[in-house]
Design goal:
globular; alpha+beta; binds flavin mononucleotide
Length: 191
């Protein structure tokens, strides 16, 4: 059976202190451990190896996820409590992680992190289908260079229904960025 994967936003800093934000699918392990699997090359990977730390942010503002695949990576940050780094101001909760072990791999190393601090900030309001649609849309946009455009456009049309029926202003904005990215790619790739 596959490992259960949770989509979160990982915030890291470079050795010189420059923040970086990236959505990642992570796995929780017993004893407060978290596995990060960044594809090489990855600034998240470089930063974790340089600082030995990362912050796992649980968010429902999917603009942060759609933003990261459409060139909008500046979101309000607050200092972390126990590690060198930041958490997202929008995080419902966050975990501060320290690097325990790394298994190198030419494509996708595995970083085993331990939780050194956890904090909740706001309550989870429940599932929203438009948020799920934005996450799926962001994954499609991150694969524009790998998948046939017709497949991406067909899946975006299917996801549109959930956006039309259940989105709030944040999801509409995030969805618009994703649609613009697909449209731009279509114009660039048509003869
Ligand atoms: C929902 C979602 C999940 C993602 N999960 C991963 C992941 O597990 N590993 C990864 O390397 N990139 C993942 N990506 C893509 C990265 O966020 C994106 O490529 C990012 O720029 C990573 O590279 P960086 O560390 O250099 O920023 C995901 C993207 C989305 C939208």
């Amino acid at each position: 059976m596959n490992d259960q994967i949770f989509e979160v936003v990982i915030t890291t800093v470079s050795a010189s202190g420059e923040p970086h934000i990236a959505p990642m699918g992570i796995r929780y392990k017993p004893g407060g451990q978290v596995l990060l699997l960044p594809f090489k090359p990855s600034r998240t990977l470089d930063n974790v190896l340089a600082t030995g730390a990362a912050v796992l942010n649980r968010v429902v503002d999917t603009r942060i996820i759609a933003g990261s695949v459409t060139g909008r990576r500046r979101w309000p940050l607050l200092p972390a409590d126990r590690i060198f780094g930041h958490r997202l101001q929008a995080a419902l909760s966050h975990l501060e992680l320290r690097l325990l072990d790394q298994q190198d791999d030419p494509q996708r190393p595995v970083l085993t992190m331990e939780t050194v601090h956890e904090q909740s900030h706001s309550a989870f309001a429940g599932f929203n289908r438009a948020q799920s649609a934005v996450i799926e849309g962001a994954v499609l946009v991150s694969r524009l260079h790998m998948l046939p455009l017709e497949k991406i456009e067909a899946e975006m049309r299917y996801l549109q229904t959930a956006v039309d029926k259940t989105a709030g202003p944040e999801e509409h904005e995030a969805w618009g960025w994703l649609q613009d990215a697909v449209e731009l790619h279509r114009r660039k790739s048509s003869p």
